[in-house]
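Moderator note: this is an archived Q&A kept for reference. The question asked for a predicted structure of one protein chain; the sequence and the answer are reproduced below.
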Amino acid sequence: MKYKSDFSKLNFFIPFFPAILISLIAFFSGDAIEMVLAPIGFLILLLSVFITVAFFTTYYEIQENLLIVSLFFYKTKIKISEIRTIKYSNSIMKTNFYKPGCHHKGIEIVYHKYDDIFISPNNRDQFIAQLIEQNPTIEIRK
């Protein structure tokens, strides 16, 4: 079964933070504001396109004994039998190296011995239930 990534509206504001910072630096340094607006517009456009493409290409699929995580053109395959722990996560700050989730509310999956991944399926409880159905030894942490 295929699950789309949940999406946070906070992601649309991310491109504006560097733009505001650059505008403030330009304002206080005395540079012409026109020289700054073009790069800021380009930066906002570029980041907005990146976030939109990431949202539409991120999904999680459970097939037989595999969890397939897809982001852009990159796919990660995890054997469901090797998943050890699933932890609910609602924090904005993540310690995971690989985070193909488009929302700050998601789940952290620990597999193998030390590998972990953060994902944000749009129906977390149904997704976890389907994983546990295939591997009942998975430990769930709230």
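Archived answer notes: The chain is about 35% helix and 30% strand.
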